[in-house]
Every structure is written in structure tokens, then in C-alpha cells.
Amino acid sequence: MKYVVVMGGVISGLGKGVTASSIGVVLKACGLRVTSIKIDPYFNADAGTISPHEHGEVFVLDDGGEADLDLGNYERFLDIKLTRDHSITAGKIHHYVYEKERRGDYLGQTVQVIPHITNEIQDWIERVAIVPVDGEVDPADVCIIELGGTIGDIESTQFIEAFSQFSYRVGAGNLCVVHVGLVPVLNVVGEQKTKPTQNSIRKLREYGLTPNIIACRCTKELERSVKEKLSLFCHVPVANIFTLCDVSNIWRVPLLLRDQKAHEAILKVLNLESVAGEPNLEEWTARADLYDTLQETVRIAMVGKYTGVSDTYLSVMKALLHACIACGRKLVVDWVPSTDLEDSTATVAPDAYNTAWSLLRGADGILVPGGFGERGVEGKILAVKYARENDVPFLGICLGMQLTAVEFARHVLKLPDANSTEFDAKTENPCVTIMPECSNEGKGGTMRRGSKRIFFKVAGSKSAKLYGSVSHIDERFRHRYQVNPNMVQLFENSGLQVVGTDKTGERVQIVEIPNHRFFVGVQFHPEFKSRPSKPSALFVGLIAASCGQLDDALQDAACNHEPQQNRRAEKRLAATDLGDGTCRSKRQVKACSNSNDTDEAQDVKTC
């Protein structure tokens, strides 16, 4: 097993996760199999109880693991399925060591950071790195490990020491250390400054690690003289210093690394030059180029309570982007704080109230994502009501679906006090209740989580058609509450159709309003399984409905045995040379005609 460790200095938020994912993409394009591990130095057992304002969204894995959002980056970029053990935290490591000490596994030793904590870190990495994550049976060739935080953080010290020891454990040629540093430009002088990166690498070397590769975050390409200066002070060859400058879209980052021959430097350090080929990134190039040429926009109103930090809905944003590529539209997201839609805001902050409603009314589609807590709930219900009454395409996820039930009960069933018991335990009309197997006594790890099977009850529903008219699907969940099974018949009698349930047929998983353009609520999180080349079916449905393409999307699914969202994404990324007789659909012709490539638009043939 070969290892690539990505760590960073100076400040957080430099893009270590995207860098690690992009390195994985380039190595995979060279013909190597890749897996990933994320290390977070905090003492939480997992990311499940951390505020979204601090660490962004909680990414849910197939096995129910609640992990840092970077694992979502790894899964999307590399098209792999990770496990909870691929997310390492200081809390997990220390808890594991404490349990071993209580069992007497250390035979009376004094348990210390060195060697017990550092050994456990190394053992965990070696144990998890060999777990196949790409559907194959054998272990991967390379494991990409990202160390969160920054060099110099006191909580990171134990992990850096572990990697220092790990370099000797695995031996020369088996570990490549990539340091992501900041090279800022001061507007006053206009010069690229290397001192921040120099200082962070100096600190890293104090711990016994010298980077093999330096990846420099900056606004524009590094000057040759700057690379030479970094090489001199950091003891890294100029050929191993790379630019991570700002690019037009995230899919260009792997291309940026490839163009600078970063893969050659990494393969040389790992002694893999003889087994790896040249990277084939045609699909990534096509996707990046296509997105940059899209001009016709689709506006989606994102109605939530964490709208101040976009990372809180990162997977939702990525799923929207994937769907927009499939539909040939450029995404515009209007962030609508749900509290600003509420009547109370009209009095205390009328400008915010008017702005929020203006954004909602101007949207082509509305999305209400998941969330917890009572704040902003009434605003979300108002957004659901607006979408339902005005035939605006709508997708409600998790809490968003539960609130569709509340809104429907209040305004269609005429039950004004209808509510979720999460927000009103004494409501006389509880249309959302806590699940029998869950409780509110503890917060961490107490929800229904992970991949579960959903069975379609209505084969002709929009949701079923978008998924390719299959009988069942597997999606990821994270919730304590559910639509009250006792009210299902009332909902269905009045027009809110339950089209997907669990295997018992009792637990509501998907709801629709059939005579609405697109009104879908789902208890699961479809965004977690969306991939650039395999966009989520329901996000494709939302975007397609929002730009007038839903009939085409449903027809595609009905006429083809292959799941339509996969086929549409592949067709969208197809080469412009259609000499082999390949056809594209009308909406693809329209997307091409809106692009800057007139030759491509001319060559397209309609089916």
C-alpha cells in the first residue's frame, strides 16, 4: 500500500479536501485504484453533533457513519463508497485506547501519547486503507489521507508525530507528504509572499516531517522566482512545487494538477512510475469546459436556516450542479433565510422580509433542505405553501418533506394546529412524530442513519420514472421523526400521494402531488449519492421541471432501460464529433446552441 498525506498550514479553509480529492482523481486517471481517509483532530466521536456553522454539513455514509463534509468530496470525485472507519477523529482514537486500557490490553503499562496513541493512529490507518471502496475485492493501490486543521494546532500534534513515525514504519518510497500552503499577494506591493508557507513548513519539519510536494494556494500562477525561493527555504525541488490558483469551476482542479505534471512527481516519490500510465481526464475536461460555456440560467431558491455558510448545504449544492450539467443550465442559487419569510420579520426587519419574498417569487424552483430545531420552521412552511399554490417546482428533503405534511395538513386538511411533535409535543394533530426506535434522550448516534431501501408504491409517479421505473432504490437517511402513519390516508384522500415507503409499507419515504408540475418530498438525502457523472434523479427532476424539461426527462426514462440520469450525463459529456451517428436530445441541442462553441451547435443532430 502506498500513502499520500495531505496537510496544510497558515490558515484553515485552503482547500485541502479538494486538493486531496483532485490528487486521487489524477492518480485514478493514471490507472491506479484509490481510497481515502480523513483525519479530524477534534475530540468529538464524529461530526454528528457539531454545529453546521463551524464545520459545515454532516455527510452521511452508507453504513450510517456521520462524517466531515470532505468525505463527500472524496466520494463525489472518486466515485467510491467509504465507511465510518474512513473518518478518524481524536475522540475515536482516544476512546479506543481507553477501552483497551480498561480491558487490560496494555498489561499494566503507563498509557501515553507516545507510543500508545500514535501507534493506534498508525494501526487504524493501515487497517482501514486495505478496505476496498470501489466495488473490487482487493485493496486499493494508493490511500489518500487528509489531516484536518493546520500545522501548529496543539490538537494536531499527536497525528503529525504519528505520521513522522509512520514514514519509518512503511519505509522509503511508500509515503508522499503534500503540504498545502498559502501564498498571498499584498495589494500594496503586488508581490507573491512565501513567508507564510515557509513558516508552516518550518514548523512541520520541527515535528520530523519534510514535505515531498508543496501545493500553493494563490490567486494566480506562481512565478518562477517564487518557486525557486520556496525550494531554497523549504528543501523541496522546484519540480515538486505546484500552483493551486483560483479556477472557473471545481472540476478544473484535477486538470490544473495534471497540466503541471503533479502526478509525475507523486508517482516518482512512491516508485509507481513503471505501473502507472498517462492520466486520461477527457470526461473531466469535457465537464469543466461544458459548465464554463453554459449561459442560460436556472434560479433555485434555497430556503433554510443556515444560509450564511454555504458549506452547511455543500452536498445539496453539488447535487444541484450535477443536475444542471445534465440539463444544460447554469445554476444560480438564491439563499433565502427561512426566518426572513415569517410574518414577525415584516415588523422588525421589513427590508429583509421583502427581499426574502422577492427572491422566493423570482425563483424557477424551490428547495427546502434538511435541518433541526424550531427556528425558521414557520418560514419553511410558508415556502412550501407558496410552491404548492403557485405550481412552482419544489423538492423537500428530510425536514423539508416533513414540513410538506405539516403545510398540507394546515391548509388543505384545514387543521390549523397541525405540527410536528419535534416542535409542539402537545399538538392535537401530530402529522410528524418521533419514530419508535428513536428517542431524544441522547443526541450523538441516536438517529435512523445510513443506506435504506425504498419501495415505490406508484409505478407511474414522477419519482419512480426519474429513477428509471425500478421497483426500489437505496438512499441514505438521517432522521428521528417521520410522517405520522395514522394520517397517511387523510393525506392521500386529499391529494398528497405517498409514492414510496419502507419494506413494511408503513413508513412514508416519498410524497408527491400528482397534478403539480413537480412537487416532491423525500425523507432521505438524495444529495449524498449524487456524482458528477451520475447526478441524483430527484435533483435532475427539480432542475428539469424548473427549466421546462421535465417531460423530456420523464420520456427519456420511460424509453430507456438504463437509468436516465446516468445516460443524460454521459450524453451531455460526449465529444462534439458525432461522426459515429450518436444522437442528442432536443434540450442538448438547445444547450449547445446556447454555448460559445458554434461548431458544436452546428454538428449536433436531433434524434
Automatic annotation (TrEMBL):
* Domain CTP synthase N-terminal: start-end pairs: 2-272
Record-linked SUPFAM superfamilies: Class I glutamine amidotransferase-like, P-loop containing nucleoside triphosphate hydrolases
Q: Which positions fall inside the Glutamine amidotransferase domain?
A: 309-543
Q: Name one Pfam family in it.
A: CTP_synth_N
For this chain, one GO molecular function annotation is:
CTP synthase activity
Transmembrane spans: none
Query: Which keywords appear in this protein's UniProt record, sorted alphabetically?
Result: ATP-binding, Glutamine amidotransferase, Ligase, Nucleotide-binding, Pyrimidine biosynthesis
Keyword Protein biosynthesis listed: no
Q: Name one GO biological process term.
A: 'de novo' CTP biosynthetic process
Gene3D superfamilies in the cross-refs: 3.40.50.880, P-loop containing nucleotide triphosphate hydrolases (3.40.50.300)
Biological pathway: Pyrimidine metabolism; CTP biosynthesis via de novo pathway; CTP from UDP: step 2/2
Catalytic function, reaction form = UTP + L-glutamine + ATP + H2O = CTP + L-glutamate + ADP + phosphate + 2 H(+)
Assigned EC number: 6.3.4.2
User: Is Isomerase tagged as a keyword?
Assistant: no
Q: Where in the sequence is the signal peptide annotated?
A: none
Give the family, as the similarity comment puts it: Belongs to the CTP synthase family.
The UniProt function text for this chain reads:
Catalyzes the ATP-dependent amination of UTP to CTP with either L-glutamine or ammonia as the source of nitrogen.
Q: What is this protein called?
A: CTP synthase
